[in-house]
Amino acid sequence: MWPCGGRRQRRLGAVALLLVVLWLLLRRYYPCLLPVVSEPCENAVLLRFNWSELTPLGLWGRTLGLQTEKSQFLLEGMPFRIFGGSMHYFRVPREYWEDRMLKMRACGLNTLTTYVPWNLHEKERGKFDFSKNLDLRAFLSLAAKNGLWVILRPGPYICSEWDLGGLPSWLLQDPEMQLRTTYKGFTEAVDAYFDRLMSIVVPLQYKKGGPIIAVQVENEYGSYAKDPNYMAYVKMALLNRGIVELLMTSDNKNGLSFGLVEGALATVNFQKLEPGLLKYLDTVQKDQPKMVMEYWTGWFDNWGGPHYVFDADEMVNTVASILKTGASINLYMFHGGTNFGFMNGALEADEYKSDVTSYDYDAVLTEAGDYTSKFFKLRQLFSMVIGQPLPLPPMIESKASYGAILLHQYISLWDVLPALLQPIKSELPVNMENLQLNDSIGQPYGYVLYETVIFGGGHLHTRDHVRDRAQVFVNTMYVGELDYNTVELSIPEGQQGFRQLRLLVENRGRVNYGLALNEQRKGLIGDVFLNKTPLRNFKIYSLEMKPAFMKSLQHVSGWSTVPDYFVGPAFFRGRLWIEQQPQDTFLKLQGWEAGKNWVENTRAVKIPSSTVRAGHCSAPLLSDRHTEVGKDTSNPEMESGK
């Protein structure tokens, strides 16, 4: 027989245990209960929510997913707002993915958005690459591990200031190609790509235990809108391959009503919150939650132009105003990163302008992943909205100054040609995409050298067939440049006999936005005329600058000490000695003109003419002890020691 005091203790213990269980159940199933009003922030009244359990690792019941109920989102039946940030795995070294995700969480974000670039995953038709820095499965799984939901934007077109908006250049081999339409040649290629891509994506959806809560149908189609059946095709291409999560579209205000597709939530993109802009969504879809898919935290830079800067206070006040309306938001970009390789896009409005290698974007984090004032202002704002402590911001990656690098050797392009390259012979000029290379998928990027024989001088005219810039040489003598604005040159007369006319044509990036996508073939896209006679019988050299080519340069004989003065295209190399663990650094190329830079055979920086901005060079590109630093200069004149 137990004493009375023991029974009382057992009852109290049972009650305490029951209360604990009830508390855990409430936290588990009703984490968004009882929102409270926060302190004023820039005169805005914001609601606080506790979403501590609405994370990929914390939410176990997976049946309903992300839904819309009148003006709000529900996640597994509970009120939810998307606080997202864009970061693209293909623009950030894999070694830094987690660091950037932790910084997202520390800023108060709960969702990561990313595009998927078709032209990286299927560089050659039918050959897919989801390895190393393109390991989409690893990237999305890492987002889940770090408590971030994912909105996936698989395209097939992504815009994103990326070459041809992410579409593979080999599509343009078809002279009748109609991109972003239901043209058979395009949809067959999309179907084959989606077959492979969705085999990775489908198992990572929310209802299958993954982090993907929504999938975007195409991208900003309302600004293109050439085929009324196209958006329905893309939607069904997703659904037929197993996509079951919420579908969305994304457009600016002008394109909003033209980019709709039944069954997908429309979202809007902008930087300035015009009066009534969010309410405009009600005119295309009534009684639905409002979502800003792209709130532009900055902007991209064009080649040779100034670095774009968007005021941090204006930005955070606009974000606060958006949140005050109850809308969800995605910060484009949270972290921009780098357009590695030749992947930068371009614009063509009044004139052609290519984008720079850096995708810093004046975003919340810098290109190097460092904090900005925008980060701390947004962190304060989101902390007040969420109403709970945020994770501490991670330490920034250390940087190192390695001093000046002496580029001690060079080799002329003319000396490289016979050692490494076999020309294609053609009576007519052939554009880059239709060169018989790379298992017949053409040349996507880089340079093409066109050589032919002439017997005199005169008037050279391109009839606007150069894409995008050509340096003209007679034998090895530089004559001038041709581009969109300069379409004719005078070729000097020489001694009797034949001479080589050489046009070194640079692809500076395909347009990624607008109505001219089908016209993005590069190189010489038509005849070039000397004294009104079309040039014929070309030797065509592909200078794609692949890693294998850059590596093979090291073994070519003919490297010489850099002279005080040199005229012509050439490759230069030097060596950077690193005694300890490599750290992030920057390349400052003051005094150089146009060219490209490689670090250990990886193109890290494009050098725009008339700029002295330092290019970010991340530690993963640098190896212990020594790193080979190379540069090709497409500028015809170089003075060493600048």
Automatic annotation (TrEMBL):
Keywords: Glycosidase, Hydrolase. The keyword Coiled coil does not apply. It catalyses: Hydrolysis of terminal non-reducing beta-D-galactose residues in beta-D-galactosides. Residues 632-642 have a biased composition (Polar residues). The active site is at residues 220, 294. Residues 623-642 are annotated as: Disordered. This is Beta-galactosidase. Pfam families: BetaGal_ABD_1 (PF21317), Glyco_hydro_35 (PF01301). Residues 72-383 form the Glycoside hydrolase 35 catalytic domain. Belongs to the glycosyl hydrolase 35 family. One of its GO terms (biological process) is carbohydrate metabolic process. One of its GO terms (molecular function) is beta-galactosidase activity. Residues 440-544 form the Beta-galactosidase 1-like first all-beta domain. Its EC number is 3.2.1.23. InterPro entries: B-gal_1-like (IPR026283), BetaGal1-like_ABD1 (IPR048912), GH (IPR017853), Gly_Hdrlase_35_cat (IPR031330), Glyco_hydro_35_CS (IPR019801), Glycoside_Hdrlase_35 (IPR001944). The keyword Methyltransferase does not apply.
